[in-house]
Amino acid sequence: MRRAAIQFFLAVSVLPLLDAATVPSGTKVEIRLTSGVNSAAAKPKDTFQAVVIAPVLAGDSIAIGQGTKVLGHVQDIKQAEAADQQTVLTLAFDSLQDDAGHSAAISAKLVAIDNARETIDADGRILGIQASQTGSARLDQGINKIAEKYPGFAGILSAAKSAIVSEADPSINYQPGVEMSIELTKPLDWNGRAQIAKITAISPADELADLVNRQPFRTQAGEPPKPSDMTNLMFLGSEDDIVRAFQEAGWSQAQQLSGQSKFETFKAMTEMRGYKEAPVSTLLLDGRAPDLVFEKANNTFASRHHMRVWRRPGTFNGKPVWVAAGTHDTGIDFSQENRTFIHKIDSEIDHERAKIVNDLLFTGLVRGLALVARPEVPTDASNATGDQLRTDGKMAVLGF
Question: Residue 273 gets which letter from DSSP?
């Protein structure tokens, strides 16, 4: 689910919301489920609802605003009948509605599900996981091989595995809050309205630019010490302001790294499921670990949005200053250098900056917004595990 790096800045109230617009075929619309969909319980024609979470633009104006409702139904379900088969779920998207009563039929197909373990085919169908390919199933396969020579020991391993790891659930189960991207397959004539929060520029602009450019722009990994993620966001507000905003946006706070959280991570990977409070590796800013860590996940540990936040010295307009580094984990790989599994990230880190800002704008809690240039920040670098980092170098600033 990629966003133009500047898209969030176009969501503020200075942009007009069109009274009527024709949105062309091929336009992508980002939505968030407000009701769940579960292939194990759903039937064809069951309905679901979602909401638009990022503004859809027509030129320099907003054609479809955040908060517009999307109504749909389950079109078809094909249940997996064996461990090597996949459940197939097809969703239909029927109409848009706003709070004023405007409605329009839409023709669209699903093209992406954020941070999902499932895949989408060319027809927009959701393809579930194969139970035979999960970590839990592979453990069983390994135990069965051991049983050929050491049946007693294999029995002990099987009992231990059953006590520790649950069988993976291959059904397609999306809770409210899961985010998707749909693509219009026909032009849409839309005359709906949406409420746009009052957001102002943060001033004085020159003092804000000075503050932003005095902040460190690179974090550092601990062992071995290497430059890592770039800071790309600043928050002006109290800790309570920030925590509340991320909670309202559907983000979770990460647990501390510990033996228990590492064990839960192992289980999530083995059972091929999500872990919304999973710990993150420690990165330092000016030698300090982050004060807050937020993440947004779905049903797999392999991918998630996440960011680390540090309290900075001083205030701006009387409000505490926080600096953050946000990246999008998109998969897991084994690092030969570090001898461990590591997350791979989306190298276009401005996409994650835009994602975070759009999410927070949608809460209605943001009062001020700015995008500040940092001429000294490199636009091409790499993090501690070797992933490329590409950016325009700017920092998004949000005031609460």
Answer: -
Which residue has 């955040």 as its token pair?
A: 66
Nearest to 168 by CA among 271, 306, 28, 46: 271
Q: Does any domain span residue 151?
A: yes
Give the chain's domain count. 3
For residue 386, tell me if it sits in a domain.
yes
State how far the Cα of 227 lies from the Cα of 222, in Å rounded to an integer: 9
90 and 149 assigned to the same domain: no
Q: What are φ and ψ of residue 16, in 5° steps? A: -75, 150
Identify whether residues 76 and 30 lie together within a single domain: yes
Q: Are residues 139 and 125 in the same domain?
A: no
- Res. 188: pLDDT tops 70: yes
Give me the amino acid identity at 292.
Answer: L
User: Which residues constitute the domain of residue 279?
Assistant: 200-399
Residue 10: phi and psi, rounded to 5, are -85, 0
Token pair of 393, please? 């170098």
CB 365 within 8 A of CB 359: no
Residue 255 CB coordination number (10 Å): 17
Q: Check whether residue 275 and residue 310 sit in a common domain.
A: yes
What would the two tokens of residue 146 be? 């051991």
- Residue 262 pLDDT: 77
Torsion angles phi and psi, residue 122, rounded to 5: -65, -20
Angle at CA of residue 51, ends 101 and 174, nearest 5°: 140
pLDDT digits (tens, 9 = 90+) for 362-380: 999 999 999 999 999 999 9
245/213 same-domain check: yes
Same domain for 265 and 186: no
* CA angle (35 as vertex; 32, 36 as ends), nearest 5: 100
Question: Which residue, 392, 376, 386, 395, is CA-closest to 228?
Answer: 386
Q: Are 346 and 330 in contact (CB under 8 A)?
A: yes
Whether the CB-CB separation of 354 and 5 falls below 8 Å is answered with: yes
pTM equals 0.86
CA 163 to chain centre: 32
Q: Has residue 8 been placed in a domain? A: no
